[in-house]
Design brief:
- With about 100 residues, this protein is α+β, with helices and mostly antiparallel strands.
- The protein has a domain of about 60 residues.
- Helix content is about 35%, strand content about 10%.
- It is built from three helices and three strands.
- It is elongated, with a radius of gyration of 15 Å.
- The chain starts with 7 loop residues before the first strand and ends with a helix.
Length: about 100
């Protein structure tokens, strides 16, 4: 199974909620969408809400930003694997297992 195509965004209506919507055009990467801007039609990816395992809002937001960049990181690692990077190949194999 392949991952949901990016770009992914962080929603403003829930702390650390990561979503994707390839039908919306965004002028910049990581744009934060409100419901008024069409965010309600987004596809849910992850919810990084504060929990017993998180250390508060700041960590939740950092986790959401990291997850949001996952499609970009995947593309970069895949490019490096194609160029022959052994570590990148290993990572791609694990992701696609």
């Amino acid at each position: 199974m392949k991952h949901t195509k990016g770009p992914w965004q962080i929603r403003t209506d829930g702390l650390g909620v990561v979503v994707a919507d390839n039908n919306l055009l965004h002028p910049t990467e990581n744009e934060i969408l409100s419901e008024e801007e069409g965010g309600s039609d987004d596809f849910f990816i992850a919810d990084c809400v504060d929990s017993a395992f998180a250390r508060g809002d700041e960590e939740c937001e950092a986790n959401a930003r990291l997850i949001t960049e996952s499609p970009t990181m995947y593309d970069y690692i895949q490019e490096q694997a194609i160029k022959g990077d052994k570590k990148a190949k290993s990572i791609i194999i694990k992701i696609n297992a």
